[in-house]
Design a protein that fits this description.
mainly alpha, 4 helices
């Protein structure tokens, strides 16, 4: 089967659309709007799948935008910042959970 691959010029659009997940996660912490954990798991599954797909596309397209001799360094820098973003998000989630549980 042929996989759907977004063109390089359109990858930024779904990346920005993913911002909608943050209010959904915040609303899922306190069960005022979404009173079932299934909503949270569904949001998380969609977030994880879109993250994997869009990160893969970014890692594929990123090194094609630089000169041939800079491709290796570009891949290393992109990998570093991807991991830094994941670590930052995990710690932000702990902070957010701490702030919400005290209320």
């Amino acid at each position: 089967p042929k996989l759907a691959v977004l063109p390089r010029s359109l990858v930024w659009i779904p990346v920005l659309v993913r911002v909608v997940f943050f209010p959904l996660f915040i609303l899922s912490i306190n069960p005022l709007v979404f009173n079932s954990n299934l909503w949270y798991f569904g949001f998380m599954a969609a977030f994880a799948l879109s993250n994997g797909y869009l990160c893969t596309l970014s890692m594929m397209y990123g090194p094609t935008r630089v000169k041939e001799k800079e491709k290796e360094e570009t891949g290393i820098i992109m990998s570093f910042f991807l991991n830094l973003g994941i670590i930052t998000a995990v710690h932000f989630a702990y902070l957010l959970l701490y702030l919400v549980k005290d209320q």
